């Protein structure tokens, strides 16, 4: 008996790692005007950023349907247990739809073990939780132990990001246009995180100037993190790989993480962050 790990395409993590660990990814839907895509299926990340540059309006995303999840559940082996780790309930109905799919699945398969977890995060934060659970599954740990560890990681994973531009948060109506224009003129950078309570996005700081913002971003890692030599840190970027690699160099000079994983932000967080955004995720304790 094995444990199958299922997540959604808001996970920003290297595809080869997810494939190697046999993680199933259920795609979110993305709407560019009248054009509808399934993220990661018929719209890859480079094409997404090309379309984002050209689009006057931000794309809209929607959660996978309960049927999308149910289809993936039905594809698993009858002997498998199933763990779903879903995008924060505060950001999407993905988790709720996965729970509905679980109820539908149990009507036909009442003896199957299936757990759905609200990750309270997204992007590489979701990736950190999924990665640990998938490694445990690969190594033959029990379903109950994997679920317990996934819950622990959910409560203790920090996801923090730095916006280089405010253009998309203004376009998306999350920041008043007048205030946003003034902040942009003053070269203000927003430092944000997923809240500990429900995974909604909250502003940690507003910092003037790129160099100061990067210094503060790196400092916050030390403020939140403990015993980092035992931890994996995931770094994601919004179409700015060189900038992300430079950030990784500075992080490694200062902190002894045992592993660094680099990925590109996909459509969900990439739309919010805009070009040049950076994100870090790691287990704090």
TrEMBL record:
Database matches in NCBIfam families: DegV
Alphabetical list of PROSITE patterns matching this protein: DEGV
Pfam assignment, any one: DegV
Top-level taxon of origin: Bacteria
Key words, A-Z: Lipid-binding
Annotated InterPro entries: DegV, DegV_C, DegV_domain_contain
An example Gene Ontology molecular-function term: lipid binding
Name of the protein in its database record: DegV family EDD domain-containing protein
